[in-house]
Amino acid sequence: MTASLHDNIIISTDFRQINSPAFYDCIVHLICMEGHGSFTYNGARFDLSPNDIAVLSQPQAVTDIETGEGMLCEYIVAPEKFLHNLLPANNYSIAGCVSLFSDPVIKATPEEAADFLNDIANIRKRLWQHDRKFYTEMMGCLLETMIYDLFEFHARANENVLTTDRTGYVTRQFFNLIEAGRPKTEREVSYYAAQLHITQKYLSDTIKRVTGKSASTHINGYAAAIIRGYLQTSTLSITQIADEMNFSSVSYFSRYCTKHLGVSPIEYRSVYSAKVP
Q1: Phi, psi for 266 (deg, rounded to 5)
Q2: What is the mean pLDDT of residues 151-161?
Q3: How many CB atoms are closer than 10 A to CB 150?
Q4: Which of 79, 111, 114, 158 has a CA positioned 20 to 30 A from the CA of residue 245?
Q5: Contact (Cβ atoms closer than 8 angstroms) between residue 249 and residue 242
């Protein structure tokens, strides 16, 4: 059973389709309810048993899907950009993605599995209500609840998401700088490489290898979240926000917003203000 729904949010039970090309710009959140299944992700083999949850940030990296007899699963797929925009700048996914890229399977307890299935049920119940004025915001809240539940499950089982070797150390220090808010004014990879006393190429290669995403993607994602916060809650003008974030000009700030938020800062603030009662 597969239902293709509004805003490219999909709920399905077809395990063999988790690497569908339609999901390549999305994140797949899957739970195994009965039986067993397996797949290869980034070259490593993973098995699923009842209550196991898999978070696949790069479905295109999934190969060799196999289902055992009686395998029953359910998963929800949503655009990565939409999910990312739901979260504040400082959120667990910044570090959690490091661990989930190398091991996407969360060994959930029966209670956690029940909570996750309830999250999916709540989303499914509302997905068809496209005519609601605040449909996108409503779906965002439901998806955000699901994401924070997954953060909780993953954090419980993975208190230390990075190893102590050099690769792990560089990755952890890079994310420490991001989580400290440096992207507010520093958005060049070269700055972070200099802070860590390594070459820009080494940093870029390391972050890409460990997380599956470029260093600049992480930096700009955090910066975009900061911008959204300013535009949603601050009384600062567009020019003042650009100055606060060390952009060389308002026009450059506007181009940056258009690229990373999808709209100009004026458009973003206008649309957001119109939605707030």
Answers
A1: -65, -45
A2: 74
A3: 23
A4: 79
A5: yes
What pTM value is reported for the model? 0.69
Residue 93 has pLDDT above 70, yes or no: no
Residues 258-272 have a mean pLDDT of: 89
**Distance (Å, whole) CA 105 – CA 48:** 8
Is 96's pLDDT higher than 60?
yes
Distance from chain centroid for Cα 210: 15
Give me the chain's average pLDDT, please: 87
How is the chain classified by DSSP, letter by letter? Answer: -EEE-GGG-EEE--GGGTT-GGGTTEEEEEEEEES-EEEEETTEEEEE-TTEEEEES-GGGEEEEEE-TT-EEEEEEEEHHHHHTTS-SS-THHHHHHHHHH--EEE--HHHHHHHHHHHHHHHHHTT-TTSTTHHHHHHHHHHHHHHHHHHHHHHH-S--S-SSHHHHHHHHHHHHHHTTGGGT---HHHHHHHHTS-HHHHHHHHHHHHSS-HHHHHHHHHHHHHHHHHHH----HHHHHHHTT-S-HHHHHHHHHHHHSS-HHHHHHHHHHH--
- Which pair of tokens denotes residue 143? 């998806």
Confidence tier at 233 by pLDDT (50, 70, 90):
confident
